[in-house]
Amino acid sequence: AQKITQTQPGMFVQEKEAVTLDCTYDTSDPSYGLFWYKQPSSGEMIFLIYQGSYDQQNATEGRYSLNFQKARKSANLVISASQLGDSAMYFCAMREGLSSGTYKYIFGTGTRLKVLA
Amino acid sequence: NAGVTQTPKFRILKIGQSMTLQCTQDMNHNYMYWYRQDPGMGLKLIYYSVGAGITDKGEVPNGYNVSRSTTEDFPLRLELAAPSQTSVYFCATLPGLVGEQFFGPGTRLTVL
């Protein structure tokens, strides 16, 4: 069955250091997309980064990078130079069904990141 | 562009009452989704639509109904509200094959 697993319910990181949030996935669809969203305490969902299953290179967006290891079915988010404003809940999500056109999304249970001053 | 708007922002229902959560988008996106987020949890897909007139069930559709008569609107109907439906409800849209979902601000629903 298709699923997304985030095994770290909570993480702490010191300000200005890098942190890796883990995400593993399982799907039988050969074409899929992987996303990371940030949800601050205010509740909105903020898109961070996207990786397609056929992309050869790891995605990067500013301080965010996605460490995509297809054979291991992992899509870890790396945040470099952490800032206090990075404290939030982070969700990994997978889009599948591209071949059938349904484009359904599955979300992980999230990792709560706390950045320490 | 307003993007994705959801009304109401907050609502308290009594057990057995019904209500409709509204979702409207002005981006002309074909794909629309309804999720629920229980406290401390991720999002679970309730229903989705790939275009006007077409809807399909997600992971947790029981107790809900949807309709999609226009591209812009995707209302979610709760019939006979139950405490288990206490949650934050997010509506989202997707422009097409590539790109990320765009989320509305959410509706916080409490059923007492």
Describe the structure.
The complex is a heterodimer of chains A (117) and B (112). Chain A contains no helices and 12 strands. In chain A, 0% of the residues lie in helices and 52% in strands. Chain A is globular, with a radius of gyration of 14 Å. The N and C termini of chain A lie far apart (41 Å). Chain A has strands at residues 3-5, 10-14, 19-21, 24-26, 33-39, 46-52, 60-61, 64-69, 74-79, 88-96, 104-107, 111-116. The mean pLDDT of chain A is 92. In chain A, a hairpin with a 7-residue loop joins strand 10 and strand 11 (104-107). In chain A, the strands form 3 sheets. In chain A, strands 2, 5, 6, 10, 11 and 12 form a 6-stranded mixed sheet that branches. With 117 residues, chain A is mainly beta. Chain B is mostly beta strands. Chain B contains no helices and 11 strands. Chain B has strands at 4-7, 10-13, 19-25, 31-37, 43-51, 54-57, 64-66, 76-78, 87-94, 102-103, 107-111. In chain B, the strands form 2 sheets. In chain B, strands 2, 4, 5, 6, 9, 10 and 11 form a 7-stranded mixed sheet that branches. A 4-stranded antiparallel sheet of chain B has the order 1-3-8-7, with no helix packed on it. The N and C termini of chain B lie far apart (36 Å).
